[in-house]
Amino acid sequence: MTKQQVALITGAGQGIGKSIAERLSHDGFAVALLGRHLDKVQAVAKEIKNNGGDSFAIKADVSKRDEVFNAVKETQDHFGDFNVLVNNAGVAPTDPIENVTPNELESTFQINVGGVIWGTQAAIKAFKLLNHGGKIINGSSQAGQEGNPNLTVYGATKFAIRGITQTTSKELAEDNITVNAYCPGIVKTPMMDDIAKNVAKNAGKSEEWGMQQFAKSISLGRLSNPSDVSNLVSFLASKDSNYITGQSILVDGGMVYR
């Protein structure tokens, strides 16, 4: 009998992270759900359990290295193994370049970039203790493949995550650890709603106008659902992607072409 695989998903309380947790559970993974707000990840964990899955909620802030290491250890201790880390947690400030503040720059990098680095370090430690390889899957963005107005800080972090993905994939290949990233486009999530509102507010336009600034350039003509992204993460977490590493894969309905 094949041993159950274990995945930890950060930022799993809503949106893309919630969808990834649900999909990986459906795929047969035991899933640990990490979030800053325990009530949110507990609610998702309860839903997964009610649907027959094995889930575990953890409160942690990915910008804090010790908390991330503790979360990975908790996951390993709880399930007895650890195989996949999904570095999904992130924030998305929307400001014209003139309005960027030192605090916004620092806090966004601590969460978006720091969270990926601390998660990667913690996963490496766990994989080595368990004496097997694993998969690290990072959340980037189409905004990490092409610049978007008013997203200087957010885009900078997502470009950085692509670089980290490439670099660490080369470092970790000899340990049978693959590192890849998913790059969503415009996904219907609470965070995307906030981005659209802020873009519209900055331009003195309606919320619908804000959303259309993103949606109008999608070849497939629709915003994506979180499941469009979790479908890709499911592939990256599976054995079918074992020969893929260092890649940042667009799942944007045809916005950015490389």
Automatic annotation (TrEMBL):
Annotated keywords = NAD, Oxidoreductase
Annotated organism of origin: Philodulcilactobacillus myokoensis
Q: What is the lineage of its organism?
A: Bacteria, Bacillati, Bacillota, Bacilli, Lactobacillales
List of residues binding NAD(+)? 14-16, 61-62, 88, 154, 158, 184-189
Task: Please name the GO terms that the record assigns under molecular function.
Answer: diacetyl reductase ((S)-acetoin forming) (NAD+) activity; quinone binding
Its job = Catalyzes the irreversible reduction of 2,3-butanediol to (S)-acetoin in the presence of NADH.
Signal peptide extent:
none
Instruction: Return the EC number.
Output: 1.1.1.304
Assigned protein family: Belongs to the short-chain dehydrogenases/reductases (SDR) family.
Recorded hits in InterPro entries, A to Z, give: 23BDH, NAD(P)-bd_dom_sf, Sc_DH/Rdtase_CS, SDR_fam
Q: Report what the protein is called.
A: diacetyl reductase [(S)-acetoin forming]
